[in-house]
Amino acid sequence: MNNRTKETTDQLKEQTNGGVDETSTVETLEETDGVVNETEEVGQAESQVNEEDSSKEEVVDETALKISELEKKVDESENRYLRLYADFENFRRRAQLEREASEKYKSQSLITNLLPAIDNFERALQFEPNDEQAIALLEGVRMVYRNIIDALKQEGAEQIEAVGQEFDPNFHQAVMQTNDAEYGSNIVVEEFQKGYKLKDRVIRPSMVKVNQ
């Protein structure tokens, strides 16, 4: 029995002692107990509602946490995909450049191997014949030399201009210097060995003498 019920009972007892009818007193007590019971039931219902609200809040918090974790995983997966895609694009671009370079300079190895033979042809062409047989032989050498040079040109190879040109370290290799008044400063005055380039790539620089 709670305090409110006790107080009501005490009041009823006082009324009973004062001459109040016992039947009326019992009815009043029953009514009071009913009110108390209803109050307790309301309190229990409110407590149950509070517990349900608290449970709902916990479910909402757990759901929000799971959503946050899923969003984080999605971001990580997206970043990983972007990195892999960038790596693949770089690989594809490098492979394409390598294929283009391989196609563009496919004759470089052959031309490089032919250069010593071409140098020997050029040395032979500097020979001055003294009879008809030697002249005929030299003319044959000259024809072969021209055919080789023409074949190189068809592959995109050509000789580097040197004598009379301004010295360029990208195309010329200076092995000697001179002081010749007939040439300007930093001008190539003599070529010891011809240089060659394949399209825009230097295969061998010209070996030259440069005026100071």
From TrEMBL:
Pfam families: GrpE. Keywords: Chaperone, Coiled coil, Cytoplasm, Stress response. It is found in: Cytoplasm. Residues 60-87 form a coiled coil. The keyword Cytoplasm applies. The keyword RNA-binding does not apply. InterPro entries: GrpE, GrpE_CC, GrpE_head. Belongs to the GrpE family. This is Protein GrpE.
